[in-house]
Design goal:
two-stranded antiparallel sheet, 28% helix, 5 helices, elongated, single chain
């Protein structure tokens, strides 16, 4: 059954047929191909073209990345990686070492490894020094240990 809805993208009314819903919001057939969820912050945003939607990052996150790094290159992985490092205060979540004090190289580690179905999402990523990351490889941590690592307080 077709019902009258308001498009969240352009605010025009249209008749929805059930296939016009994306991320729990209704979008008209014009806006739907251009709507995307930011892989960094989760915000729904409208791209200017279907080609730009492949980037998957909203303007706010791209601008923040540019301000923080001085770089125009906005690869989704680089932005997510930077957000993880920033959240973890550029400190290894496993051992507490940092590049400034301990001269270690930091990596972005998947709590649930990608080979075991882990996603590239902030909740599944932690900062790890190269020693801890290479030691863990693709080992799946027990849920209790993973939760403690995520909740560990960082002393800065």
């Amino acid at each position: 059954m077709r019902t009258r809805k308001v498009c969240e993208g352009c605010k025009n009314t249209f008749y929805a047929d059930g296939e016009d819903i994306l991320y729990d919001n209704y979008y008209c057939s014009f806006c739907l191909p251009f709507m995307q969820k930011c892989v960094v912050c989760g915000q729904i945003f409208k791209t200017k073209s279907e080609v730009l939607s492949e980037i998957g990052i909203c303007k706010g996150c791209r601008d923040e990345f540019k301000i923080n790094t001085g770089s125009n290159f906005a690869s989704p992985w680089l932005i997510i990686r930077f957000k993880v490092f920033q959240r973890d205060a550029f400190t290894c979540r496993y051992c507490g070492r940092s590049p400034l004090e301990d001269k270690v190289k930091l990596h972005c580690d998947h709590i649930v490894p990608r080979v075991r179905g882990g996603e590239d999402e902030l909740e599944n990523l932690v900062t790890a020094c190269s020693d801890c990351n290479s030691g863990k490889v693709d080992i799946l941590l027990e849920k209790d240990i993973a939760r403690k690592i995520i909740q560990r307080k960082l002393f800065i």
